[in-house]
Amino acid sequence: xNRKEFIEKLGVGAAFVLTSTCLGSCTRDRADPIxxxxxxIDLTLNKFLELNNFGSYIIEDQxxxxxxxxxxxxxxxxxxxxxxxxxxTYSDIEGAWLCTAHGALFSEGGEGLNANGSKGLQIFxxxxxxxxxxxxx
Length: 137
Ligand code: FES
Description:
Layout lengths: L2 H24 L11 E5 L13 E5 L2 E5 L5 E5 L10 E4 L4 E4 L5 E2 L16 E7 L2 E5 L1
Antiparallel strand pairs: 1-9, 2-3, 3-4, 4-8, 5-6, 6-7, 8-9
């Protein structure tokens, strides 16, 4: 093998390595829906006191738990359906789920309200029992 052949061969190999590396790390996996989610939080604990305020939210176990602007307890996945970034919040201005990455907006029921939110958002059930809030799929 002469030098030219070596470089040509290296170029193809390097391109393959770069391509396969990028495909492996540049492609984001589509988030699978969370199944069998079921946990309880004690709303009297300091870390959950924020939920006393209408329009606020906390994050627990990859779930965004919100107190809606009308006082309901809501829960949604933290992972946005747009590009699978963990940036879902609850917007007290919109009264909706908002992804801070690219502005995807979802209704409280998880329906997409703009183009980036068009794939919808996984929503979980909530149930109050005294001071305990159960979040489940
Ligand atoms: S990842 Fe949420 S809007 Fe893009």
